[in-house]
Each structure stands twice: as C-alpha cells, then as structure tokens.
Design a protein that fits this description.
By secondary structure, this protein is α+β, with helices and mostly antiparallel strands. It is built from 2 helices and 7 strands; from the N terminus they run E-E-E-E-H-E-E-E-H. It is globular.
Length: 156
C-alpha cells in the first residue's frame, strides 16, 4: 500500500453582517467529481512557509487577500482510499488552521483549480451544507481555541 503525506494550510475567515456571523468557504471538487464545501486553503509547495501557503491559497480560491491573525490548531486525518489499477493508498493529511481577516480583494471563483465556487455562508447554516470534516474542525478550533490546538476528530 502506497503511503501519501500531504501538509496543507487553511484559513477560518468569519465576518459579522447584520448581527449574524458568516464564514468564507470554497467548494472543492474531489477526484470522483463530487463537490463539497471546505475552508479556503490547500497544499504547501516544497519549501513554502505554511503562512504563505494559506495566504496564497485564500487568494487563489476566493480572490481575497487575507491577514492571518492567529494559529488555531492542527487537524490530522488518516484514511485509506482506492487508487487506479486496484491499488490502495494510505493517506495522512496534516492540516494547519489559522484565523484570517480579509483585508482587500473581491470575492471571485477559482478558475481551473481544485475548487469551483467561493461564498460566504451563515455559520448557523453550515450544518446543512455538504462539507468536508475540516470545516467542522476549523469552526470548533475558532470557537474553542483549545490550548493544544486540537479539534475533535472530523473524518468526513
């Protein structure tokens, strides 16, 4: 079984609009063509600093420039999934999660990338979205700010 490690950085960007909180999400297109909402962010390039990764990815996926204001924590996932030709991969994802504040830019969708849509969603409505577990983990980290930076496991 092939082992795969992916280190990525994401931003939890929450804003207040008319006494309601909204979170910025990007809709990820997974390899089988399904679409689920995720936090804006993504994989680190070799030699890239995690802070730079989160800033770059938020810009690529949403059109916004983000200022990272705090490290919220690290989410770790491990799962096996099928690969071509009947093989399986043992995937381990390390997801570094920051709190971000939008400073400039205009909301737009990513072109020719791993996401196809960016949007603000009311925090109260997130539970009804088709989303990856990282969204729930990021919101929990943002709300609770655990001392060790670890959220409850969300493996969706």
């Amino acid at each position: 079984m092939k082992k795969e490690l992916r280190v990525a950085a994401y931003a939890v960007c929450v804003r207040e609009i008319d006494d309601a909180s909204e979170i910025l999400l990007a809709r990820w297109i997974n390899p089988d063509g399904g679409k689920r909402w995720t936090l804006p962010g993504g994989g680190m390039d070799h030699g890239e600093d995690p802070l730079a990764t989160a800033v770059r990815e938020v810009d690529e996926e949403t059109g916004y420039v983000v200022e990272l204001v705090s490290l919220l924590g690290i989410h770790s996932i491990n799962r096996q999934y099928p690969r071509p030709h009947g093989e399986f991969a043992d995937f381990h994802g390390i997801q570094i999660v920051y709190e971000g504040r939008i400073t400039t830019g205009e909301l737009r969708n990513e072109a020719n990338g791993s996401t196809d849509l960016a949007a603000w969603h009311p925090l109260d409505d997130v539970a009804h979205l088709d989303r990856v577990g990282l969204v729930d983990a990021g919101i929990e980290l943002w709300r609770t700010r655990p001392p060790l930076g670890r959220a409850t496991d969300y493996l969706r």
